[in-house]
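Work package 3, deliverable 3.1, input record:
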Amino acid sequence: MELLRFFTAGNVDDGKSTLIGRLLFDSKSISTDIIETLTKQSKTSGIDTGIDLALLTDGLRAEREQGITIDVAYKYFTTDKRKFIIADTPGHIQYTRNMFTGASNADLAIILVDARNGITDQTKRHSIISSILGIPHVLVCINKMDLVNYSEERFNEIVNDYKEFAQPLNLKQTSFIPASALAGDNVVERSSNMNWYKGETLMQFLENVKIDVVNSDGASRFQVQYVIRPQTNHLHDYRGYAGKILSGTYKKGDKVLVLPSNIETTIEKLEKHQAEIEVANALDPVIIHLKDDVDISRGSSIVKVSETPQTEREVNATICWMDNNAFQPGQKLILQQNSFRTKAIVKDIVGKIDIHSFKQLESDGGMKLNDICKVFIKTAEPISFDAYEENRHTGSFILINENTNNTVAAGTISLS
Amino acid sequence: MNFEEKNMSKLDYLDQLENEAIHILREVAGQFDRPALLFSGGKDSICLVHLAIKAFRPGKFPFPLVHVDTGHNFPEAITYRDNLAKQLDEKLIVRYVADTIKAKKLQDGKGKFPSRNGLQTYTLLEVIEEFEFDACIGGARRDEEKARAKERIFSIRDEFGQWDPKMQRPELWNIYNGKINKGENVRVFPISNWTELDVWNYIKREKIELPSIYFTHERECILTEHGQLMNTNEFVQIEASDVVVIKKVRYRTVGDMTCTAAVESEAYSLDDIITELKEAKISERGATRMDDRVSEAAMEDRKKGGYF
């Protein structure tokens, strides 16, 4: 069975919670005691007609009180075909950073559009974030079709509007489904109200959409997380580099380069789950043994000599500023890419992305919470990276405030 | 097949969950000076130990196993705990809630089912202080409860162990920021994304041995007014009006004897349990925990107070 991670963005008004509730209900993922609690709560909040599905996803007291989603909630359901992880993220502009958090790992974005309103600022914002984060699939779910008389014409109009808007975003794959989460049309059950629609229901789409999670075809990328040295009599000389294959494959005898120290050596042995293996594939948690004693520690990369990544002291990136405190020019930061950390400084804010038009605006020299900017960063140690669009693992990083230790920004690396 | 053409191997979901958990455990080892694994003898922490074996062998665990013993544990879970630590030759630290109660002159749990659930937070914070642990690995899962559904995998706690849900650090991709100030600590939840069913499927796949109380057995229980089956033991006050029954039961979660209910079951094997769960209509905590029934925000409040 496969695993699909997707995120939904929006607010109670968009029908997001109803949609998630419907997926969970209809896949029988909600237990009777939880339904019972919800019915009770729904009554206290003045809803007499059944269950307020928003209460199912909004887990914090403040969220229930204000009727909004503030932070990401993770929900799980399983069908016969797949296990699903939903990152249910807020839609408000002031919680953009939380949306980034929930979306960063996703294979798929579900963007909800109210059929009455068509494309709104929120639709644009969510699509632009999906584009920046390189989400492999974007599903535009045109919801509340019951309120536009299940009109095919209206559906087509919105699809065309969306395609026109999204054209410069370079989304990898986009699909459209007309639905009504409240009435259940095309969510799990096929709608008899929209016979003109011949495509998949939302659930069919989720079960069938192709997932490219594991890229063993890409360049070989591995970072050391932890050095295993038992130092017992029996294993006196044992020295293994534990980490996860980020992409590509490795095998015994491969000529490799250790970065950033730039030393060439050979893979002597590969271990996984206490057994020696011949080939290690992408995402495998392994222990690598090298032929030579070289300078290597947590955060070092091991790559095949024929597939070396760029290794520089400077990177161009798009970052989302996530701290309540605005960026201070010259601020000392720590850049963390997987397990690799180095001191870093934002040298230049090249431009600011308009979150509703995707246009690059001139920078005013500052970065505030939720701003998305193109920046030029200098690092103390050389960093080995790929473009984010090539490799989500080696092209992404976070920035940490050296003083508060908070994660203040998330970035994706571009080569130019 | 497009996948084969592009050499894109498809991983099973259990492999993906396992890989993620191992990655997280190794991040803990790499980022912290004094981590600990909170071990309760329950199935979730047993899975954590199994994952630690995969992450670190042939090396030793880079952390001790720490158990906050409420004194109300099932004897089967304690035996299991001690055997496991011995068999693995790993360090086990046990601290007792009873000692905290005595030293701090705290009020012990009262009433018919005297719970030490709230009290164990004190002992937990004490053991963290005693050993200066900077990271505590726990087996909490996001599917258990809606406040947990909101918590990050690396959850930063202040000096008082408090969780502030409004100040959570953004957590992106698979990048974990474990940098903390002195006095703070991090709770780490490697199996956040596992559901109860995933845990059981994993235990079956990996042939992990469990304490016997997870499987069906005959037990004397009190049938409570909410229809829960509470096992009779030295800590529970049995009254004349109580309905005492002998039932074939098992435990879905292993907490304190005083606040964990049994479920009626005929499940002898892991396969039986998995079948039973697929048909079960009641959630894990709903079926078995008395402590979450207090209010809608019971778990959120306990976490804010330093709970796991």
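Confidence is low (pLDDT under 50) at residues 1-9 of chain B.
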